[in-house]
């Protein structure tokens, strides 16, 4: 049987050696490329520590923090992306309900569309405009039960939805009040007003309400729907006491602050000085620790504000003082 490497040339030379030589060159080049790739791979592998080498705990914590920061940045970018072009949405436009509310269903049976039919009837030309509600959210503890009862009783059920943030975890003890059945109860032990508000008053959930009242024994802020969407974004997930927010709330009411920010003075508000955190006043050490963290949180919030304002070149501070003009010469 003949082969490509056994033929003989007319001049007496053997073409098999020529072909073998060419093949050897190809093989050598392939081997060189393979070796170069292997060296590069080994060099890359040697430049990073093996996974089994134990590393300092501080390094591991730093790496974890860097990874978490990266995830936060990616999630922010994802939230800022525009909606897909028409025809590329995952759901039909008429199906998605992008907002919600805190209204309870009167029964687990019955017509599920009763509320929608009621709204359609109210929207008829001859019908009066539908009445919109506001929402009252209050952090509560069982020790302040009577005070909270007097407070909630002043807000008419036809005008307000009620949400209670139970920071002591006690919920069932509130059942003896008539309004308790229509209130939304959220329990998480040892958490603050702003911790609850950030997680359970998401703007799309309370979009059905004209105003958001977030009251406790000290601050009694009221936000319009648009202002709350802005203020909710300002509330930091990890800064649970909210110190420093009151200095910046005006940014969520653009325009003349004398017009867009107001004080409700038609009714008085009694400051009772009943603490809702830190042991309820009997634990002074606890209160002192809470105040230390609150002060630290305010410094962190101010630092984040300044950093964000410096990095966002497209944002202009509407309340920044105008630079002093240089006196004209001559």
TrEMBL record:
Quote the protein name from its UniProt record: Uncharacterized protein
Q: Basic residues bias located where?
A: 71-85
Q: Where is this region: Disordered?
A: 64-108, 306-330
Q: Which InterPro entries match?
A: DUF707
Q: Biased-composition ranges for Basic and acidic residues?
A: 306-316
Q: Per the record, a Pfam family?
A: DUF707
| Source organism of the structure | Urochloa decumbens
């Amino acid at each position: 049987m003949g082969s490509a490497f056994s033929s003989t040339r007319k001049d007496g030379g053997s073409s098999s050696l020529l072909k073998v030589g060419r093949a050897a060159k190809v093989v050598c080049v392939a081997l060189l490329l393979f070796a170069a790739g292997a060296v590069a791979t080994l060099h890359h592998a040697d430049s990073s520590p093996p996974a089994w080498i134990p590393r300092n705990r501080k390094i591991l914590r730093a790496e974890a923090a860097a990874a978490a920061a990266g995830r936060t940045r990616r999630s922010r970018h994802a939230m800022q992306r525009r909606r897909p072009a028409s025809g590329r949405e995952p759901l039909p436009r008429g199906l998605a309900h992008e907002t919600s509310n805190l209204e309870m269903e009167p029964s687990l049976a019955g017509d599920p569309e009763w509320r929608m039919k009621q709204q359609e009837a109210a929207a008829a030309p001859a019908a009066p405009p539908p009445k919109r509600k506001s929402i009252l959210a209050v952090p509560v503890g069982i020790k302040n039960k009577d005070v909270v009862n007097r407070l909630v009783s002043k807000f008419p059920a036809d005008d307000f939805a009620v949400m209670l943030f139970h920071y002591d975890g006690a919920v069932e003890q509130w059942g003896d009040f008539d309004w308790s059945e229509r209130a939304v109860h959220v329990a998480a032990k040892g958490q603050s007003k702003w911790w609850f508000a950030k997680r359970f008053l998401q703007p799309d959930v309370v979009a059905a309400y004209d105003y958001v009242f977030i009251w406790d024994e000290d601050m009694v802020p009221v936000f319009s729907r648009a202002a709350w969407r802005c203020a909710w974004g300002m509330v930091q997930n990890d800064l649970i006491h909210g110190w420093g927010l009151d200095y910046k709330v005006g940014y969520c009411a653009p325009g003349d602050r004398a017009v867009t920010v107001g004080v409700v003075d038609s009714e008085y508000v009694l400051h009772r000085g009943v603490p809702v955190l830190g042991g309820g006043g009997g634990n002074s050490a606890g209160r002192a620790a809470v105040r230390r963290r609150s002060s630290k949180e305010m410094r962190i919030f101010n630092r984040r504000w300044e950093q964000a304002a410096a990095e966002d070149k497209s944002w202009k501070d509407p309340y920044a003082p105008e630079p002093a003009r240089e006196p004209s010469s001559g």
